[in-house]
Automatic annotation (TrEMBL):
Residue ranges occupied by any Major facilitator superfamily (MFS) profile domain in the UniProt entry: 19-449
GO molecular function: carbohydrate:proton symporter activity
NCBIfam families for this protein: SP
PROSITE patterns: MFS, SUGAR_TRANSPORT_1, SUGAR_TRANSPORT_2
Keyword Transmembrane helix: yes
Topological relation to the membrane, as annotated: Multi-pass membrane protein
Protein's organism: Paucilactobacillus vaccinostercus DSM 20634
Pfam hit, one: Sugar_tr
Name of the protein in question: Sugar transporter
InterPro entries on file: MFS_dom, MFS_sugar_transport-like, MFS_Sugar_Transporters, MFS_trans_sf, Sugar/inositol_transpt, Sugar_transporter_CS
Similarity-based family: Belongs to the major facilitator superfamily. Sugar transporter (TC 2.A.1.1) family.
Cellular compartments annotated: Cell membrane
Length: 476
């Protein structure tokens, strides 16, 4: 009996809080690099005398360009090597290229763009891997809240970078932006050593024939032996059904009748999140304030901190309400207010030409507040839970890649658009996209709250069968 107790204690050596904390910590990398360029860019522009809007856009968006490929590659490799190993690799790449960013030669525009593209590989990989890992580790009743930890980590990373930018703003221009970019290596080092102690996902372990290890991992994060056995049975049943199909999975498989409904839903939500223009605010808020007020962007670094505080507060609100409201209800509410926040300044400017230019900044803060507890966290919750096991790695990679394509295009084109259009008109374009996102959610995205991953998969399969029967009736 004593021996048996000793074994149980040994199996419980990894606390569930540690698994959830470091499982989501990859979001810090994602968030820090989103935020750090916000403060670094005004100093970089002064140091290198950057006046070309296209070059400014490329330096800023290079990370997102690399992330497009990092997300896709990581999704496929994680199906072979596991989520944990790929997160470790991402941390190493992020650390190396963060340091190399700070060592850029003077006026080394091409060097900095290339290095930031490689940095983006790690950022994109983290964006694909963390939601999958967290959804596979979380019980269905808590998956929204625990997956929402990823968003809390992302916005905490952003706030951390904004605070560091603000604290370093009095350094000489040539040093300020270099130190800001180099410090991104610190969270990567913390992530690496934290993930070294994490277990692999139980679903991946079952899929690769390591059932005993899967039982051990489930024992860390489930409340009772019965819950462990029930979930193991459910995972094994799904894995057995999908093993043969997984052997023949191609990109085309994602859009066959069995998977198409869920793939379009998950990929569509991921794409809309970024095409709605959030990163235009997060990357360029000092420049937005500069254009609105005429004050130097380098003196407006308190605004990113304010936006960061709003984001963190919103992510904490989401953790409280995640399991109290349906996913689609929150997405619809957030998207509607976000659309109004972008569209109203353009309308007001037409009706009241002398309106305060700071009005747009106030509306952008309202956008950030509602984005922070709706589209921001729920996108990754949905991406993490909606894809069937057989295609999860590849589909998550595709969703993250399209998310990063949107982020890259927004980061690249926003300086160019604002150089040729009033800011209010640019944001009105994003407002229309927000409206389209709400419509897409209402008609194309199933409700997933409180359902196991296997139940969600069955929902998609049932929808696919219904579509096949409908097509057959039309053909007949």
């Amino acid at each position: 009996m004593a021996k048996e107790k000793k074994v149980v204690e040994k199996e419980k050596k990894i606390p569930s809080w540690f698994i959830y904390f470091f499982g989501s910590f990859g979001g810090i990398l994602f968030g820090y690099d989103i935020g750090v360029m916000t403060g670094a860019l005004p100093f970089l522009k002064i140091d290198w005398a950057l006046t070309n809007a296209t070059l400014t856009g490329w330096i800023t968006s290079a990370v997102m360009f690399g992330a497009i490929f990092g997300a896709s590659i990581a999704g496929q490799l994680s199906d072979r090597w596991g989520r944990r190993k790929m997160i470790l690799l991402s941390a190493v790449i992020f650390m190396i290229f963060s340091i190399l960013s700070g060592l850029a030669p003077n006026n080394g525009t091409l060097y900095l763009i290339v290095v930031r593209v490689f940095l983006g590989l790690a950022v994109g990989a983290a964006s694909a891997l963390v939601p999958s890992y967290m959804s596979e580790m979380s019980p269905a009743r808590l998956r929204g809240s625990l997956s929402g930890l990823n968003q809390t980590m992302i916005v905490s990373g952003m706030l951390l970078s904004y605070i560091m930018d603000f604290l370093l703003k009095d350094l000489p221009e040539a040093w300020a932006w270099r130190v800001m970019l180099t410090l991104a290596a610190v969270p990567a080092i913390i992530l690496f050593f934290g993930v070294m102690k994490l277990p692999e996902s139980p679903r991946f372990l079952v899929k690769t024939g390591h059932e005993d290890q899967a039982v051990q991992v489930l024992g860390y994060i489930r409340d009772s032996e019965q819950e462990v056995q029930d979930e193991l049975t459910q995972i094994k049943t799904t894995a057995q059904q999908e093993t043969a199909a997984a052997q023949a999975v191609t990109w085309g498989t994602l859009f066959n009748s069995k998977y198409r409904y869920l793939v379009i839903a998950g990929v569509g939500v991921a794409a809309f999140q970024q095409f709605q223009g959030a990163n235009a605010i997060f990357y360029y808020i000092p420049l937005i304030v500069e254009q609105a007020t005429g004050n130097a962007a380098s003196s407006a670094l308190l605004w990113p901190v304010i936006q960061g505080v709003i984001l963190v507060a919103g992510s904490l609100v989401f953790l409280v309400i995640a399991e109290k409201f349906k996913r689609r209800t929150l997405i619809t509410l957030g998207g509607s207010v976000m659309a109004l926040s972008f569209l109203l300044p353009a309308v007001i400017n037409k009706l009241v030409p002398d309106a305060s230019p700071m009005m747009i900044v106030v509306f952008l803060s309202l956008y950030v507040a509602f984005y922070s507890f709706t589209w921001a966290p729920l996108t990754w919750v949905i991406v993490g839970e909606i894809f069937p096991l057989a295609i999860r790695g590849r589909a998550s990679g595709l969703a993250s890649s399209l998310n990063w394509i949107g982020s890259w295009l927004v980061g690249l084109l926003f300086p160019v658009m604002t150089a040729h259009m009033p800011q209010a008109a640019v944001f009105a374009v994003f407002g229309v996209i927000c409206v389209l996102g709400v419509i897409f959610t209402r008609f194309c995205v199933p409700e997933t709250k409180g359902k196991s991953l296997e139940e969600i998969e069955e929902q998609g399969t049932h929808h696919g069968r219904a579509a096949e029967l409908k097509d057959a009736d039309v053909t007949d």
